[in-house]
Design brief:
The chain has 119 residues and is mainly beta. It is built from one helix and seven strands; from the N terminus they run βββββββα. The radius of gyration is 18 Å and the shape is elongated.
Length: 119
């Protein structure tokens, strides 16, 4: 079954509702963040990710930021929107793009530590 987009009637924004959604308590606890030597998003492991859509590079060719397709997208890029009413919601099929923005090649960098040039 396809995921659905529903318009939040209070905030007037579209929210993805997964066909496999469960109650919050039914999900397993979050695992600890990946370490640099196991994280496929870190510099040097680019061959393990989908091909990049966009990259911001330094003069030496090293990337500062990359955009890649999601590993498990919840949106599909093409199809019929199928807009409809669903109870009190406006709903439509989950049409769109799902991408990951990798903001830095340094695994543990925090935004406040990046500096104005990187941000």
């Amino acid at each position: 079954m396809m995921h659905t987009l529903r318009k939040d009637p209070i905030l007037s924004r579209w929210v993805a509702v997964l066909s496999t959604s469960r109650a919050p308590g039914d999900y397993p606890p979050l695992s600890p963040p990946a370490q640099e030597d196991t994280c496929v998003l870190c510099a040097g492991r680019e061959a393990e990710t989908p091909p990049e859509i966009l990259a911001i590079r330094q003069d030496d060719g090293a990337w500062q930021a990359r955009v890649i397709p999601s590993f498990r997208p919840i949106l599909i890029p093409e199809g019929d929107l199928g807009r409809r009413g669903l109870g009190m919601y406006d709903a439509m099929n989950s049409i769109g793009a799902n991408e990951l923005i990798i903001e830095t090649p340094e695994h543990n960098a925090r935004p406040e530590d990046m500096g104005a040039g990187q941000v």
